[in-house]
Amino acid sequence: MRQESIKIDESRAIEVITRTVKAKRDHTFIFEIQNEFPEEKFIKLMGEIGENNPDYSLNSLFLITPLVRGDDTFKFFERVTNYPLVKENSWIFEPQKVVDAHNSGIDVKEVCRQTLRPGSYSGSYLNQWVHNCQILVDHYQGNVRQFFNINDNNANEIIKKLVVKPRAKTKEKPEFRGFGPKIATLTVQWANQYFIPLEDADLIGVPVDFQVSRILIQTGAIDIVDPQNVFQITHKTILPLIKDICKKEDIKPKDVSESLWLIGSRCCNSQRHDLCPISDLCNGAISRESYDKEGKFYPIDTRK
Length: 304
What we know:
By secondary structure, the chain is mainly alpha-helical. The chain has helices at 10-26, 30-33, 38-49, 54-64, 73-81, 84-88, 95-103, 108-116, 129-139, 144-150, 155-162, 181-194, 210-218, 230-249, 253-268, 289-293; strands spanning 6-8, 222-224, 228-229, 296-297. It is 55% helix and 3% strand. 38% of the residues are buried.
């Protein structure tokens, strides 16, 4: 009989998730010393620049979120929020000003690159910056909030409009560019958390990335027999698993997302096992080299 390529231990996944969420709620382990998430500093800064205009802050977060793809989220937002050019070039977060600058011959992409200094993997998104601003101006009064309103402020509908379907024809592609499943879900999660209460926000699951995946792989909740495509693990396996567990255990996806991500980002990356609430379940930290270079998870990684 052929061995299954991906094995799921749901009971172990439930234990991992419930223990990490409890640690977050109780402010123990890593959550005792890490109380602020990286995007919070950026949102605060945008509130100050935009004179506490929530629409300016929402537009800013919407436009910048695709840049966290493939980058260290803490380091990225730390660079942005401590860089004077962000204040000097704050117009890059105002869609109408971006379109006007582009039409007047200003190289908006280069201004964004110098201002935001994205990682090499995510930097290609800057090619879409003007396009996304143009869509906001042409169809949504230059305001992301209007885009949400037109989609009934429904989290699932907004994600459907943002995500590019695999092998989609040009006419089937969404208006906005740069929003894959992870980034679209993350965008909606942050929008719901900080700006607009969205319907069905607790039903969209979590933005599954390397950090979230690694926790479930390292603890044996997900066992990989053969090399697996990242999308197969993150979107096809882990996302529905977490959705199901959140429903069964009455846990908010946001809490799962933040707790697993923080442990991977802060405990695993720094080998701070003493701060990890599930270190006794872990088989060892995996490498993200194959994730970044090949778009795959390898079973041999699970014992590193």
